[in-house]
Amino acid sequence: MSDFKRIHIALLGSFLQKEEADGLLIKQKSAVRYGDAYWLRYHEGEAWVFNYGVAVCWNMSNDERQELFSMLEPIIHNPVARPLSEQYTYIIDDKASIKVHHDHIILDNDDPLSRLAMSHAFAQSEKLGFFEEKARTVIEHHRFLSKELANKGHISLSRKELSKLRGTLFDTSCDISLHFNLLDIPEFFWEYPEVEHYYKQLAGYLDLVSRVNILNKKIETIHALLEMLASEQNHKHSAFLEWIIIVLIAVDILVYFLGD
Q: Which of 80, 110, 140 is the last residue of a domain?
């Protein structure tokens, strides 16, 4: 086990601010950019920093990682208070075939582009996990709406409160949908198709496709909640207008009789 090297995947925030990232990472730190990833080399390891706020560190010490995260924090939009991190191990064996098993990777070469291919899958999985948790939390927090509607026939919230809830749900849905293309096969492989099989092998192990499908179902649930709230809000507005009409008619009748 002592021969195994470690991989750390960390979600740092929403995304890198591009101009600041180019200035810091490329101009100051001599990073090399491959599509949406920056390659930073260290004494015995490397980091792949993705512009959607994820860093994949290969064989880096704890001090090197902490130094990297601190350096990146000022150029990250909505940085997390404590970077969420996952760990894997790997070994390079040029006599073996690529294999992923029990969070351990056997790599058949020492090519950085092979590690980048796998880093894409790691980074997407980490970002997907963030989206999964965000969708789950929103659905869980608003589960009472459908239950209350089923039990009472209406939702006991004011029109203003309903508007705020619709805004929250819509914001979550847009945030996930607008960044959903991050979970597609990266464009990097158009230029480097020879390493795509590394990505696919790890993507299969991380179950990316089925997790994306489940996330789609969760987004559909959020949309259903939005439609339900819109319907309830329209119902409340219609009821309000009906009462206005009733009051106006009543006033008109009173004026008619009092006038006589």
A: 110
